[in-house]
Structure formats: structure tokens, C-alpha cells
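Changelog note: in this version the structure field was regenerated for every chain. One regenerated record is shown below for reference.
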Amino acid sequence: MRGTTYDLRIGNEPTRDVIIESALDKPDGREPVLHSGARAASGQTLKRCTRRLFRLCSRLDLGRGHKPRAQSLMNIISRLKRIVPAPFRPPLRRCLHSIWPRSRYAHRVQQELETYNAIENVHDLPAIAHYWSEKYVAPLFRPFGFANSIEFFRSYVARMCGERPAETVAILSVGAGNCASEINIAEWLREIGIENYRFECVDINPALLKRGASLAEAKGLARYFTFSSFDLNAWRPSGQYHLILAIQSLHHFVDLEILFEKIHELLHPDGYFLADDMIGRNGHQRWPEALKLVNELWGELPDTYKFNHLLKRHEKEYENWDCSKEGFEGIRAQDILPLLVERFNFELFIAFSNVIDIFVDRCFGPNFDPSKEWDRAFIDLVQALDAAQIESGALKPTHMLAAMTKSSVERTKMYKHLSPEFCIRRPDPHVRLRDVTIGSCERPGGYCSSSSRYCFSIGELRSRSSFPSCGSGSL
């Protein structure tokens, strides 16, 4: 086997030999492999790529005990993608990671930036998600004075501005992205005549913030906004904020402890930390007890409902995909709620949803058509199963809406008994689904939904174009 040993140096700091086995030596087309401390094969193309890689790396001029800055590593990764042929990128990436473990973080950042730069509307959802939200989530929210998450944020901003008419209410939005929600709130405030506020929108992605700045300018709201990209560890904002918003952003942060400590420090004594976020398993995977129910339902779905629109593949068997493998999607989602409970008091907390996520999200949601009776009935029944298991404690919610404060709270407003503490999913291999009856169905293995008035057993899903009504269900 042909091979080359590379004697690699970064500045004056010697590293261990890193050997690369080229795809040219893989007649079966398998992925190139990295070897450390041994000889391996390498073609001329890979040699050139490797030399370029380490010329770039040497420019960091690292000495002993020094670490490359995240921004420098991100620049290297971005440049490498332009000069390294696609087949050689995985082994070279692992090579970089082996030399600088911190480069793995930089690679994730780069993946995150590229993913969201390519999405025009980050809040776009399939039609079935809107059907589910309007039918089940909005009624859950309405007793608390709003019908959706944007109305939740509007209500707290308007309340704070009303309580402080002589002040300019300082609002910080963390992980604001393209700032669409913040600008929506500002448009609504203009409609009702409120002007005593200023938004500061921060995000790691300058391209998305630029979109937000352009949109604010186009809508005549630029004077209410400032935009800045930030590195959490180096972030040193001045002053305090009356409101701090996290709109579907917390599940993208790795250093949650640092983030929450800074938010606690920056929050005004009478202020609120408002969050709409995901609190399920890391990477938006299902815990075993939820996965069991997903697999039962999946096994009975027609194949036409099993196409993954994000990954562009058909999944005959449901794959419990870890969305945090590349970027930061759900990287520490399961830690969000426990850490918040340790640091803040909850004025309001609403938690909901688990198994239903799989069937209404961007991956498989487009397979369901809300204009079709069978599709609506299936979603209704999954929702009923989901809600019953969550209320029993067998499943834990994956979504939360929360208003938190540093001050003491006499009583948390919440849905039924679903308190923040109740909704924490503690790692426990013995958790099992409960035997729950939805409604008062007397059919063996049957489930009822009071909202849809349908009755079914899982084994009937594939064969029926509609479900029989038992007329007896009530949650």
C-alpha cells in the first residue's frame, strides 16, 4: 500500500504524525480514513489539500498552552471548504479535530451559520403544524390571555411599557436570528401607540442580523433597534434590561450555565426573562418511552407518510435522529429546564407536546394534508395519546413557554399540574408508558379522542380511511 507520513508543525509546536489514507487507494469507494502515528496511502490531490490545510493552520502561530480563537478556526474551516474536494473533507476534518479539539466547536458554528443562511424563513412550518397548533395549542394558551407565542411576548412588552411610561424599556433578544418576531412585536406596538422601548438583538450569525436590520429599515422601525453579533464567552453588555427574550434560541447554546448566569445578572430586579423553547431530549431525539409509542404508530402508517423532507429520504423504520450531530440544533435541550429551575422563579409556565412533534414538524409534517379527513383524524388521535401520557407523567413535554423573574413569585400560573419541576425528565432507564384510557372507550386496545370523537386501535391505522366514533370520549 502506497503511503506518506506528514511531519506536521503548527508554529513552533510539533504535533504527532498524522497520516491520511487517500480515496485513490479505496477501489471500493469507501470514505477516506485518517491514521495517526502510522504510514498510509495518499494521492497527489490529497497531499496538496493537506499542505494547504497546514499552511492555513500555521498562520495561527500557536505556542504551547495557547488555543486558536473560534473565529480564526471558523475562517479556516470556511476556506478549506473552497479548496478541499468533497471526498477528502471528512478525514481532514477529523484530522483538524484531533489536533485542536476546539475546532470541533468551530465546525459546528460554521455548519449552523450555513444552515440558517440558506433558510429564508426560519419560522416556516408545514400546513399540518398550523392545523394542530390552532386546534390544540391555541386553546391551551387562551386562558392565560394569548393564543400563540408571539402574543405572549407582545403582552409582556406592552405591560412593561405601560408600567413605565416615563422610561425607555430596554429589551434584549438573545439568539434573535433574522429578528422577524421582534419586528413583528414592534409593528404591533406601533399600531397601539407604544413607543417607549428599544430592542437590542444579538446573534452569532451576522448574515441573519443583517436581514433583520434591512427588514426593520424597510418597515420604518430602525430607530427602535440595534443589532450586534456576539460570542457568548466574550459578551460584556452594559446596563440592565427590563425584558430579556429567548425565542426558540436556548436549544442552540452549549454554554447554558454561562448564558443563564449572565441573563440573571443583566435582568432588572423587576424584569422578566421570557422564553419559548424546546426542552426535550438533546438533538430533539425521543427518550425511550416516547420512542416506543412513535414506533408503534410508525409501524402502522402507510409508506407515503414516511418521507423525510429535510433529509430527503424515505424512512421505512423511524430513525431517532440526533439533530445536534453537525450544528447546534437541540445540543443541550434536555438541560434547559433543570438549569432554569435552579436559577429563576416562574411567574408563568406552559409545557406541552412530545410524540406529536414527529408528525407535524418540518421532516414528516409535509406528508400530512389537513384537508384530508384521515390525516386530521390521525393527528387528533396522536395528540390525545400524547396529552394523556404527559399528564400522567409517563412522557415529559418537549415545548415550553415561560415568564421568569429574579423576584419571588407567590404562585406560578400553569396548565393543570404541569409545573416546571413536574416536567423535568430525569435520566431514568425504568420509565415506562402508563396504561391510560383516553375517554371511556370500552373497546380492547382502543383509544378515544373527545376532540375528534373518533375511536381506534393502533392496528387499525393502516386499513381505515376514517375512524369509527364511539361517542363516549372525554379527557
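Spot check on this record: Residues 232 and 259 are 7 Å apart (CA to CA). Residues 1-42, 60-70, 436-455, 462-475 have pLDDT under 50 and may be disordered.
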